């Protein structure tokens, strides 16, 4: 028994440093350039955000199940989206839609953003709250609700990041962007792409980026 426990401790020791460093090197090779993003992915212990049974795979570049039919995005997707969201600017005030296990939330908090995050499944929001507490990144405001409507009471946002795929762009979200603000989200159904939406003095600009695969944005909350 003692041996087994010792083994587990050793495993976690390994998970917490060298494995994370390797993950960051892979992200760099895949083209992630923002050192603030790379530092946050290195520092936030991703294994705390997945089931213990999956902890040894936490630093592989894969998405993993987090319960309730939902998934935590792969590290490269989290890094890419965060890099696009901030594009070299100070993080400012950010709205996340789809808290899930709270990993993306933790990255945003670690980077110094003022974070509001909305999740429609109450049980997942509780889990995210626990995970963030364990990771000692508790500054985000977590809200149980339907992200289709954004969070008008806290708007405008410098950035909005959505981690579930909408079929069409929810109008409420562009309305809640500050001028100069950026919205990054997956759009589509069977076929999905990341979209970058920017609010400029001239109006809204939309750009279609990489093909992606996210769980769907669903209506209502439960
Ligand atoms: N960023 C998360 C990814 C979770 S998957 C993570 O790192 O774990 C997407 C999440 O979006 C799921 O938890 C799902 O329940 C949530 N979601 C789907 N539709 C939503 C909606 N309308 N409002 C808020 N959250 C929603």
From TrEMBL:
It is found in: Cytoplasm. The active site is at 73. Its main location: cytoplasm. Its EC number is 2.1.1.77. The keyword Methyltransferase applies. GO terms for molecular function: protein-L-isoaspartate (D-aspartate) O-methyltransferase activity. It catalyses: [protein]-L-isoaspartate + S-adenosyl-L-methionine = [protein]-L-isoaspartate alpha-methyl ester + S-adenosyl-L-homocysteine. Keywords: Cytoplasm, Methyltransferase, S-adenosyl-L-methionine, Transferase. One of its GO terms (cellular component) is cytoplasm. It holds the Pfam family PCMT. GO terms for biological process: methylation; protein repair. NCBIfam families: pimt (TIGR00080), PRK00312.1 (NF001453). PANTHER family: PROTEIN-L-ISOASPARTATE O-METHYLTRANSFERASE, PROTEIN-L-ISOASPARTATE(D-ASPARTATE) O-METHYLTRANSFERASE. Catalyzes the methyl esterification of L-isoaspartyl residues in peptides and proteins that result from spontaneous decomposition of normal L-aspartyl and L-asparaginyl residues. It plays a role in the repair and/or degradation of damaged proteins. HAMAP family: PIMT. This is Protein-L-isoaspartate O-methyltransferase. The lineage of its organism: Bacteria, Pseudomonadati, Pseudomonadota, Betaproteobacteria, Neisseriales.
């Amino acid at each position: 028994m003692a041996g087994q426990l010792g083994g587990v401790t050793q495993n976690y020791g390994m998970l917490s440093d060298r494995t994370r460093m390797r993950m960051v090197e892979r992200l760099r090779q895949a083209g992630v350039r923002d050192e603030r993003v790379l530092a946050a992915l290195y520092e936030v212990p991703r294994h705390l955000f997945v089931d213990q049974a999956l902890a040894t795979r936490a630093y592989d570049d894969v998405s993993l199940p987090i319960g309730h039919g939902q998934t935590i995005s792969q590290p490269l997707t989290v890094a890419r989206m965060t890099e696009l969201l901030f594009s070299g600017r100070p993080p400012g005030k950010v709205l996340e839609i789809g808290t899930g296990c709270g990993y993306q939330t933790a990255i945003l908090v670690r980077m110094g953003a003022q974070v509001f995050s909305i999740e429609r499944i109450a049980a997942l929001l509780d889990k995210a709250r626990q995970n963030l507490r364990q990771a000692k990144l508790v500054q985000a405001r977590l809200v149980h609700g339907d992200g289709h409507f954004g969070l008008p009471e806290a708007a405008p946002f410098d950035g909005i990041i959505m981690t579930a795929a909408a079929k069409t762009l929810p109008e409420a979200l562009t309305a809640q962007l500050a001028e100069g603000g950026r919205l990054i989200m997956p759009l589509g159904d069977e076929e999905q792409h990341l979209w970058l939406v920017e609010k400029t003095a001239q109006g809204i600009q939309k750009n279609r980026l990489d093909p992606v695969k996210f769980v769907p944005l669903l209506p209502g909350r439960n």
